[in-house]
Every structure is written in structure tokens, then in C-alpha cells.
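Consider this one:
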Amino acid sequence: MDSAFPNLIWNQQGHVGVLKLNNPKMLNALSMALQKDLMGFLPQLNEMQDLRVVILTGEGKAFCAGGDLKAFCSRYDRYKERGGLRPVYSNQVAMALLDVQVPIIAAVNGHAVGGGLTMALISDLRIASDNARFGAAFVKVGICPEYGSSFFLSRVVGVTKASEMVLTARSIDAREALDIRLVSEVVPEEQLMDRAHALAHEIAQLPPFAVKMAKRVLRHGLESTLQQAMAYEELNETLCFSTADHKEAVSAFLEKRKPEFIGY
């Protein structure tokens, strides 16, 4: 990883990249330094031409423990010193994660709490180790849902379960997360990254432009009427039909051979 982003670890092999949050002493809490690194690095992913899938995970025992609580206290003290006024809160980290064009697999290797839970929710796929825990603990520290969790959580687990998680601030284990479909798989801790890589390679062998467009239309559909969704599908499908990879995919299927995709 570039020394400009010391709170992140990036490793890419072939078409798959692994992005680790690298603040293990604080359980990868979202310190201002980590947030700054994420906002600086995430946009660069869209410039990596050979990148097709990102695995997002945490270094050490946690995925992400949410906000930096000590920073919360010191920030409040500074606000009081200047009359209680503070800048408007920004969801810039979440927006940067949302703007990543390739699929993101969250490999949840421990606690995913608050903003850490939401980073997993923003990801396209979520798998968890059997020691993972999830918590929408916003109200426990006197704040409300952030990073888009008010949008994603109820759509993933339903309004009733989302309300229970948020209003009680109770954390759940990996098995309950699987039961409520917060994650799609739970695997033993030592198998988590192997499973994440297997899933990533399954996606990476598909036509990359079509995969990006598929992600785009699914996200668009979350906040669209049926007519809007179908109109957007038509536009993106027209683009896909025009690609060399579309022809290659069909030809390879008909000729019973392995396709070779070029990305457009």
C-alpha cells in the first residue's frame, strides 16, 4: 500500500483486490485518519483497469468497530468551546464506497458495529466468520443511524428486524445474521478469506463490463419505480449488447470453450 494511506492494506492478485482496514489496536474503528485514507483511496479503485472484484475486510480481530469514541468526546468538547456549533455531519466515506464500480465482498472477520455494520451493508455481498458479531449500536452512544444504514438495513433484513437492531442497540452473532439474511454465508474463521477469494474469482471470470452494469441496475432498482427500473435496464442492456465481451460470451458458450474477456 502507498505510504499515503497507512491505515489501509491493499493487495491485488490478478483481477481480485483485498482491501483491509488497518487500525487493529482500535478494532479498525473509523478514526479521522482511517476515514481520510478511505476517501483518498476508494476513488482510485475505479481507475484500476484490471480490477474486477474487491474483498473488504479488517486487519486483526475485528471488521470495523464503528466510530472512534474517544474522538467523539474530544470533538464534543471542542464544539462546546465555540458555543456548541459544529459542521454538518458528512457521509463522505459511505458515498466513496457506494461509488466503487466493481462488486465489493465484505468478509466480516469479527465485530461490525455502527459504521462498520453499514460498510458491510453497502457492500454487494456479505459473508462472515463464525465469530463475527453485528450491531446497529448508534443510539447506545447517543447518535442515530448513519452512512446510509437507514436506507440499507431495512431493505436487507426488513423494517421490523431493522427497528429491533437499531432501537435496542443489541448485537447479534453470525448465526442470527445468517437467519435474518444479513449475510449469505457463515464459515469457520480460518476459512473466511479462502471462501471470499473463491466467491471473488467466480465473479471475476464473468464479463467485467456486464458485471458492472448488473451492479448498477440493481442499485438503481432499490430506489426506482418499476417503470424507472425497466427504462434504466433498457439503457444498460443496450450498452451490454454492443460489447465485444457479449459476443465472446455467447460464442464461447455455443462453441463449448472457455471465454476470454477484454472488458468492453
